[in-house]
Inverse folding.
């Protein structure tokens, strides 16, 4: 039977102090606050998918509040209920966002194609290499 923990409140999270080693403050349902020796407070979600224990980074406190972290936990649990790994779903989402953005390579290739008629073939190849 899982261990029952008292849910965190804003005061407990705000007052969490750095110690010599990192430690966790559990909110329940796999959500916990990782307090680092440097004073960072990071929201993490521990879950199981495909028989493996995994951790998902949800953000840093105070940028991500306790209520936001709980909402993100529920979103991840909804994905798990559908049989989707929340970590893999996030990576796919970030990859698609990266493809939509104008990366340096996209801009450089546009620049290259614009000036291509002015260059000798050898120069054009050297620029892309």
């Amino acid at each position: 039977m899982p261990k029952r923990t008292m849910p965190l409140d804003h005061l407990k999270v705000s007052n969490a102090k750095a110690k010599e080693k990192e430690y966790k403050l559990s909110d329940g349902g796999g959500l916990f606050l990782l307090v680092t020796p440097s004073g960072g407070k990071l929201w993490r979600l521990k879950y199981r998918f495909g028989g493996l224990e995994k951790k998902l980074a949800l953000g840093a406190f105070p940028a991500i509040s306790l209520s936001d972290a709980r909402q993100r936990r529920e979103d991840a649990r909804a994905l798990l209920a559908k049989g989707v790994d929340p970590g893999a779903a996030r990576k796919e989402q970030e990859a698609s966002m990266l493809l939509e953005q104008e990366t340096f390579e996209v801009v450089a290739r546009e620049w290259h194609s614009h000036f291509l008629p002015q260059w000798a073939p050898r120069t054009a190849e050297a620029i892309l290499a």
About this structure: The mean pLDDT is 89. Helices lie at 10-15, 66-81, 86-100, 104-115, 121-128. The beta strands are 23-28, 31-35, 41-49, 52-60. The chain has two domains: 1-84, 85-129.
